[in-house]
Design goal:
Helix content is 52%, strand content 18%. The protein is of the alpha+beta class and 406 residues long. The chain starts with a helix and ends with a strand.
């Protein structure tokens, strides 16, 4: 079970982490691209500057005039235009953004840039101090990346903190989801373990009696009472195995290919008539109130088995001189009820009685060859028919109610 929980947790955490990581990367990539585009736009605006861009070796008398640049303003970036003389020395530095960096610093940076072979370089905006575009030998346009670099690093830092916070939340959420998802599996696993333990216990007792009786019979061949014990316990084992098979079949069947629309009223009436004799032998009367003409898409043999379980349960828990009442009627839904007077269901046990091997009175159930499987089978049959079964005890009466959705 721990391995299953670990696998479920890993899948949930991985999926949510991948999604969060994708959002984190996408957001920072978009921010980076926006800043990159802004810098590239600032560099490319030099295309609109009116001056000849021929190399000096082709027109050595050309010298760009600062007035061609002075009125050109860059709004969103700190931009400098550096104009070179014909001998390659800086003749003019134009600050388009009124930044506090001195001309000497800009000259030094421009000279360094001019010595590089690349005509244009924006660089890594997380680390590069300047981006530039070099036009022949006449001028270089520089963009100060300080603000951009600070903005991108701040965005990255804040988004990283948020990412880690979200990851912590994802971790907790994944744990809670894992517990919620695996809870039904864990409960089923525990029920399976309990089922095996209960079945083993029920089989162990009659086997012990059979073995002991066989040993006694071997020692005293004339004592035939041991044969009666063996037969009795063998019958008990046979009934238990039959019940276990019925339970397994009821849990496994999901196919509705054998369903057909049938007359539920007649089926309930027939089942009631069948049990009248059983009730009479126990000193119990049977009364029914069955609305005629009620039809239901159903598996008829399973529905007969459901009625047998409910009526048998009512007969065994009824006191002598009382009446078992069977009712079938159509309201908004189809409602089937079986009510008996006698031993009630213990408070708080109304749901547990539908669990496998549930028995309120161990000694009494054993003496009557009952194993607590009937109502578990009944619940599975109801589930197959999309019906809901419930039980309630009040004022000495116990009522089992089955609601079939119309």
């Amino acid at each position: 079970m721990k391995k299953l929980k670990a696998q479920v947790f890993a899948v949930i955490f991985l999926i949510m982490t991948l999604f969060t990581t994708a959002v984190f990367v996408a957001y920072n990539t978009m921010e980076y691209h926006r800043e990159y585009t802004s810098i590239e736009r600032s560099l490319n605006q030099t295309e609109r500057m009116e001056f000849d861009r021929k190399p000096l070796e082709e027109s050595e008398d050309f010298k760009p005039d600062a007035k061609d640049f002075g009125s050109f303003k860059f709004v969103d970036k700190t931009v400098y235009t550096v104009i070179f003389d014909s001998d390659g020395s800086v003749s003019k530095v134009i600050n388009h953004s009124d930044n506090s960096v001195t001309d000497d610093e800009i000259k030094e940076i421009a000279t360094t840039m001019a010595s590089q072979s690349l005509q244009k370089e924006i660089g890594n905006l997380y680390f590069a101090d300047y981006s530039y575009q070099y036009r022949g030998n006449q001028c270089i346009v520089l963009v100060d990346n300080a603000e951009t670099k600070a903005a991108l690093r701040t965005t990255l830092l804040y988004s990283l903190v948020l990412y880690l916070l979200i990851e912590a939340i994802i971790f907790i959420a994944s744990r809670l989801l894992t517990l919620r998802i695996t809870k039904p599996v864990a409960e089923s696993f525990e029920k399976q373990k309990q089922f095996i333990a209960d079945a083993s216990h029920e089989l162990k007792t009659p086997l012990a009696v059979i073995i002991a009786s066989a040993d006694a019979l071997e020692s005293n061949p004339d004592e035939t009472k041991w044969l009666a014990n063996i037969k009795s316990e063998g019958d008990r084992m046979n009934k238990l195995i039959a019940d276990l098979l019925d339970l397994a079949k009821s849990e496994a069947v999901t196919d509705k290919s054998e369903f057909a629309v049938g007359d539920l009223s007649k089926l309930v009436e027939k089942a009631s008539l069948t049990f009248e004799g059983v009730m009479f032998e126990k000193g119990v009367m049977l009364a029914d109130e069955i609305e005629s003409g009620i039809e239901l898409n159903m598996n008829a043999p399973k529905m007969q088995q459901l009625m047998s379980i409910l009526l048998d349960n009512a007969a065994k828990h009824s006191e002598r001189g009382t009446t078992v009442e069977v009712s079938l009627k159509r309201e908004k839904d189809i409602i089937l009820t079986v009510t008996n007077e006698g031993e009630g269901i213990p408070k708080g046990e109304e749901e547990k009685i539908f669990e496998r091997f549930y028995r309120a009175d161990e000694s009494r159930n054993r003496s009557e060859n009952r194993y607590g499987l009937g109502l578990a089978i009944a619940r599975n049959i109801c589930a197959l028919h999309n019906a809901v079964i419930s039980a309630a005890s009040e004022n000495g009466k116990t009522t089992f109610r089955v609601i079939f959705k119309a």
